[in-house]
Amino acid sequence: MIKATGIDKYYGTYRALTDISLEVANGEFLALVGPSGCGKTTLLKILAGFEDLSAGSLVIDGEDMTEIPASARPTRMVFQKLALFPHKTVAQNIGFPLHLAKRPKPEIDAAVRRMLELMHLKESYLNRYPHELSGGEQQRVALARSMVSQPPVLLLDEPMSALDAKLKKSLQAELKHLHRHVGTSFVHVTHDLEEAMMLADRICVMRAGKIVQLGEPSEIYYRPANAFVAGFIGDTNLLPAKVTREGDAFRFACDVLDCANPIIAADQVAPGVAAGADAALMIRPEMLRLLAQGESADCTISGTVNEFFIRGASIQYRIAAAETEIVMDIPGTSTLPAKQGDPVKLGLALGDLFAVEA
Ligand code: ATP
């Protein structure tokens, strides 16, 4: 549906995007993530036609977009700040794109009702005005309006960032529901990594105008290309290590980890490290467990509890170990297994280690 090849974007002499190539399949949900200023919105605007590209090519739905203005593209963009018409009702707002396209009234009515249903908005809202709705409901109406004419591509620029946590959760569920039922390709900019993991088929991680990694959520989470991606997506421990090839596998040495047999398989080593780059061992907090007295594991870490946070479903521990701090998440329990100042031993399976470029 979208094929971007070698896209560069300059604002004056400032290079905002460098050699961006990506494809989005028909009906795919792609999340764009990355630190502030890395070029996510710029890329979205180029797809939408609100910005020209400086080099490269863009094909959407089989057609070269170079000369096609935003209004004639098969894309719709939803901005962070929604712009509903304040003096139009919910029904008029949602139906507006079809009204503009001079579609017959019964068709508009049917499409509006279908969108209302898909976004789980009550029928009684149809005659309300935007100011009579909550922020979350307004955002749903804005989404419904952008989808009513069934554009092949929906571009979402942080549409949920202004909402509180609970509303966000319910709107995320609506968005996924909507995506599943309309067959549109979604490109969704978000700085909420959990949201990207939950919603997207693939995640594109950007940094300083370039794509660092593009892959399925589990790939990005468990097999990050480098320490930047590992640290950007979710909490993580990155322990400096030396990694050297040993036959088909790799041997590692790391001051913090105590392992009887410090060997990991080739697929536990990112390509950059295999080629000789400096390494860090990535350990996700949920991969660690608290060892009971006398209990053993492939690898262990000895330390002292600095701090803990009871989060309900899980407890997060911050543990001082060999001049670093280790983060560990364990399932929540009503009795606290260790408290501040306690000496602890953590266990880890060798198979859970992954070496990234430091
Ligand atoms: P955020 O997460 O903060 O929204 P972003 O990843 O969406 O950031 P962009 O808005 O795409 O980032 O901006 C990328 C870079 O290009 C930034 O350094 C920004 O200052 C710059 N930039 C964006 N628009 C313009 C413009 N119209 N003129 C000049 N520079 C711009």
Explain this structure:
With 358 residues, this protein is of the alpha+beta class. Strands 6-7-8-3-9-10 form a 6-stranded mixed β-sheet, with helices on both faces. It has helices at residues 40-48, 90-100, 105-118, 135-147, 165-182, 193-199, 217-222, 227-232, 271-274; strands spanning 2-11, 14-24, 29-33, 55-60, 63-64, 75-78, 153-157, 185-189, 202-207, 210-215, 237-246, 249-253, 258-259, 263-264, 279-283, 289-290, 299-310, 314-321, 324-331, 343-348, 354-357. A hairpin with a 2-residue loop joins strand 18 and strand 19 (324-331). The chain binds adenosine-5'-triphosphate (ATP). Residues 11, 14, 16, 34, 36-42, 191 line the site of adenosine-5'-triphosphate (ATP). The site of adenosine-5'-triphosphate (ATP) has 12 residues, from strand 2 and helix 1.
Portion of residues within helices: 10-25%
How many structural domains does the protein architecture include? 2
- pLDDT averaged residue by residue: 91
Unreliable stretches: none
- Radius of gyration from the alpha-carbon trace, in angstroms: 24 Å
End-to-end CA span: 35 Å
Taking the sheet with the most strands, its summary is:
6 strands, mixed
Structural class computed from helices and strand pairing: alpha+beta
CATH class of the largest domain: Alpha Beta
CATH topology grouping of the largest domain: Rossmann fold
Can you write the helix and strand succession as a string? EEEHEEEHHHEHEHEEHHEEEEHEEEEEEE
Net shape: globular
- Count of individual helical segments: 9
Query: Which ligands appear in the coordinates?
Result: adenosine-5'-triphosphate
Describe the strand arrangement of the main beta sheet, using strand numbers.
Answer: 6-7-8-3-9-10
CATH superfamily of the largest domain: P-loop containing nucleotide triphosphate hydrolases
Q: What is the strand content? A: 25-35%
Beta-strand segment tally: 21
CATH architecture of the largest domain: 3-Layer(aba) Sandwich
Keywords: ATP-binding, Nucleotide-binding, Transport
Protein name: ABC transporter domain-containing protein
Organism: Thioclava sediminum
InterPro entries: AAA+_ATPase (IPR003593), ABC_SmlMolc_Importer (IPR050093), ABC_transporter-like_ATP-bd (IPR003439), ABC_transporter-like_CS (IPR017871), Mo/tungstate-bd_C_term_dom (IPR008995), P-loop_NTPase (IPR027417), Transp-assoc_OB_typ2 (IPR013611)
